[in-house]
Specification:
Layout (H helix, E strand, L loop, with lengths): L1 H10 L9 E8 L5 E7 L5 E3 L8 E8 L9 E7 L5 E7 L1 E3 L3
Antiparallel strand pairs: 1-2, 1-7, 3-4, 4-5, 5-6
């Protein structure tokens, strides 16, 4: 049985990662559906180098679409500092809601 468990673990989705993810919740401005998105801080960020290390920023842009009510895209842009802490967030086509 342990062999089958190893094979299953190999093809299953990875765990949430704890401190390596940020979850955003947005509400579509057209239909009101709440859409959840998970951002992996190790893989989903694009780096923007500054003149010094303190000026380095990370950006993540996601286009979210709900699950069938409508197909209105909700565009989310998050900006992170060098420690991967959110310093700015913008949204088009919806609003942010608290989780």
């Amino acid at each position: 049985m342990s062999f089958l468990k190893k094979i299953t673990r190999l093809f299953s989705a990875p765990s949430s990662g704890g401190g390596n993810t940020v979850v955003t919740h947005v509400r579509c401005s057209k239909c009101g559906e709440i859409i959840h998105s998970r951002i992996n801080l190790n893989n989903d960020l694009s780096i923007e180098y500054g003149n010094t290390e303190a000026d380095t920023r990370y950006t993540c842009r996601k286009v979210l679409i709900g699950e069938g009510r409508c197909y209105q895209p909700v565009e989310v842009t998050l900006t992170f500092d060098q420690n991967r802490i959110i310093i700015d967030r913008k949204i088009k086509g919806g609003t942010f809601v608290e989780g």
